[in-house]
Structures are given as C-alpha cells and as structure tokens.
Amino acid sequence: MGEALPFATHEVFIAGRWRDGASGERLPLLNPSDGSMLCEIARGNAADIDAAVAAAQAALDGEWGRLTAAERGRLLMVMGRAVLAQVDELARLEALDVGKPLKQGRADAVALARYLEFYGGAADKVMGETIPYLNGYTAFTWREPHGVTGHVVPWNYPMQIIGRSVGAALTMGNACVLKPAEEACLTALAIGRIAQQCGLPAGALNIVPGLGDEAGAALTAHPGVRHLSFTGSVATGRKVQAAAALNTVPVTLELGGKSPQLVFADADLDAALPFLVNAGIQNAGQTCSAGSRILVDRRIADEVVERLAQRYRTLRAGPALADLELGPLISKRQHQIVSRYLDLARAGGLSIAAKGEIVADAPVGGFYVRPTLVAAVPADHALAQEEIFGPVTVVTAFDDEADAVRIANGTPYGLVAGVWTRDGSRALRPARALKCGQVFINNYGAGGGSSCPSAALVLPATGERRASRRCTASRR
Ligand code: NAD
Questions:
Q1: Residue 470 pLDDT > 70, yes or no?
Q2: Enclosing domain of residue 398
Q3: Which of 60, 89, 98, 420 is the most exposed, fewest CB within 10 Å of its CB?
Q4: Cα(first)–Cα(last) distance of the chain, in Å?
Q5: Among residues 262, 295, 261, which one has the least CA distance to residue 279?
Q6: Has 288 been annotated as catalytic?
Q7: pTM: predicted TM-score of the whole model, two decimal places
Q8: How far apart are CA 380 and CA 293, in angstroms?
Q9: Which residue, by CA, sits nearest to atom 42 of ligand 1?
Q10: Do 224 and 310 share a domain, yes or no?
C-alpha cells in the first residue's frame, strides 16, 4: 500500500455519512500497474443495500424530494465545477485503480464534469405535455422521478458511466444507490465526497462498494428500487434484467460490443490511421465501444495492414503513471482471458501482423499485454466474433459494400461502428444499414459526447474532429 490516497477507502456512503460496512469485512483493491495491494474497500452486503435504499427513500421524502428542478440542476452544475477543479487528482486515482494512463483519466474526469453540466442544465427543461382529448376534459402529463434508482457500474470507465447514469437520475429528482465495481471504485468514492462537499442532500446519492453477487445482486433484487441501470457484461446484464423483471421495474442495460470500422478504398488513410489504432487500444482495449474489428476493402488491405503494423510496433504498454499509449489490463483474470485469445490466434495459424512492446521498466507484477494486430482474420473466427476486452485488433478484408455490411452486422453485438470513405453517399448508405446504436463517419471515438443520444450518426465538423459517445445498443 505504497501510494498515498486522499481519503479513507474502506467505507460505504449512506445517508450522507461515511462508515464501515455492516459486516466490517473488506476487499483488497489491487494496483494493476504492479499487482500490489493499493488499499482496502468495504465488502458491502445486503444489509448495507437495505440501509442505502432506506436512506434514498428518506431523501425523496425529505429535503432532496422538496428541491425544485432548478435547484437540483444548480447542484449538479456545482458538482461539475468541483470535478473540473479536481481533474488531476481524479486522473491519478483512476490511473492507480484502473491502470489507465493519466491522459485518459483526465479525459474521463472532464467527461464526467460535462455529463453533470449537461444534465444539470436539462433539469428544468424536461416538460410534460397537454393532450387534445374529449370536450370538457383537460389531459396532461407530468414527468416524475422513478424514486429510488439502482446503478451498477463496471471498472473500465467509472467516471463517465457514473456521470451519465447517476447524473441523469439525480437531475430528474431520483435518489440513487450506486454499486461500483469491486476491481475499481476509487473515483466512485471520490464522487461521493464531491457530492457531499457540494451540498447534495444526504441520501440523494448512496455508494456501496462490494462484490457483484453480493451487494450487486442485493441491489438489483431490492423491492424498494424502482429503476435499474446496469453497465457491464452481457452475462451479468441478463441477470440484472431477470431481477428487474421479478420486481417489474424498468432497466437500462449497456453491455458489450465488437464494433467494426469499415475502411473503403477511397478512405483518407492519413486521417483514419490514428483513429483505427486508438479505437482498439484505448484503455488497453477494455472499452465497450472499442473499434476492434477493422474491415478493409481487399484492394487496399495489404497497404492498410502494413501502415497499421508500423504504428503498432511503436506502441508502448507500461505503468499508468508513466502515461504511455497503454497501461496494464485491470486484473490477472482479464490478462488470462486476453492471453487465451492470443493463444487461439497462434494455434489457428492466424497472421500476427505486429505487436507493440511492454516497456522494460514495467513492474513484473503488472497485468501487461503487448498490443497486437492480427491480419486476415476470417469473419467467423472467435477473434472476429467475440469481445476480447484487451488491445487486440483484428483485420478482415471485404469484397464490396454489401460484403462489408454483411460482415459488420455478422456478430451478436451492435454497439458502435465507423465508416471511412471520401464518398458522401457511400458513407451514409452503410451507416444506415449497420445494425448498431451509433455510427461515426470519418471519425471514431468515445468519451464525453454527453449530448448525443444512444442511436446517433456522428460526422466530424469542418476543420475539427468531433468525438461522441453514447453506447447503449447492445446485443440485438
Ligand atoms: P461485469 O458484468 O462482470 O461487472 C459489472 C458490474 O456488475 C460490477 O459492478 C459487478 O460487481 C456487477 N455484478 C456482477 N455480477 C452481478 C450480479 N449477479 N448482480 C448484480 N451486479 C453484478 O462486467 P465486467 O466484466 O466487470 O465489465 C466488462 C464488461 O462491461 C464488458 O463486456 C464491456 O463491454 C461492458 N461494458 C459496457 C459498457 C457500455 O457502455 N456499453 C461500458 C463499460 C463496460
């Protein structure tokens, strides 16, 4: 536990107070950059979830529930400003906890602030409708909070995901119970402290770290929770959906992806290459919307692979605080999963076009893998079909536009896609045919597109590159 942390990490946050979890038990939190124990976190359990749901309900019945929409919005804005004032500290926490290079942690913190500002601004602009009805009747709708909302988030982008999930819920006047991931929850705890410092009424946001099948399952099954929001794996998403069904409450799921980037023969490769590479290695490939399948016109496939390979050979994975292109993977388990896919590639005789390096001074206990580009991967191969969640990008050639769309749509996923072409009509045709929530044209990016809906088409503005994000569509 060599790193100084700015607050006690082993507590739960319930009813505006930090305290030990009900069982007093704790879980170790590892630093993925060296495998050492960073700190301990509370092993929250069903009793903590009960207390958190009760605190949230009390907040709804009390001060929080009495605030006007404008007052709620102002509080979110204040929280957004507080986040911006702490960007470097939040980035450092994320680097230690997730293994994320500092620049990515900073980008996540700025995105969190932007979500809070965006939702804060929307607070008093969400309106009901008046409805033409029978003579003598006045029919209208009110937009109301669900009540207590449950939020289960993963370890890969805690700040962004909390920003859009909890941020949206708070702005509408819900009271939240947040269960961060057991692998990484320091920025979630930091957000609790920011909320407290900014005067968010007690109980409006409660945070219970713990294991998925304990605290997570208790939260998603709790009869006092009236809406669930879950981001994570497909397998867990199904369990959460089943739990929501048993309590007949609505659920928002944000699950996995195997997102394609279509590179047509007329693409501007100089512009595309940095995006083609970054979309696969950002956060060491542990990104739901990773653009990890590059589909390329067969006529330029060799050239594209060679140019990608040149870049891959320059990529370095190393400690998060060294702020290189990649940090480590989150855990030994994730390292094993990614290693198995690389073994599968070798065993299947796939062509490893290039690998980056792990820097020489990377601690041996860290969970590093070399970023890897695999060429000529058949579209039905496991490496082209399954979400690897590591820095492994596969390249598959296509014959024509119809073939490209068929391959792109040929996985069980449908999250994000990119289309690279100089031909405007060709850009829009496949974009419409792609079965996914968000399509980037001559661009690919996630992070901070708080104002984009889940299904969106994003084009770069003239003279600048606009990134957008909102990956909600998953598993059609
Ligand atoms: P995971 O499903 O194992 O865990 C996610 C969260 O769910 C954690 O907080 C965990 O504790 C909790 N959980 C686990 N079991 C639970 C249960 N039975 N009941 C309730 N909660 C439970 O996911 P992971 O492997 O940690 O995260 C990676 C996955 O998340 C990837 O598949 C990735 O694509 C996906 N993801 C998607 C998005 C998106 O926006 N679509 C964003 C980030 C990650």
A1: no
A2: 260-458
A3: 89
A4: 43
A5: 261
A6: yes
A7: 0.94
A8: 12
A9: 288
A10: no
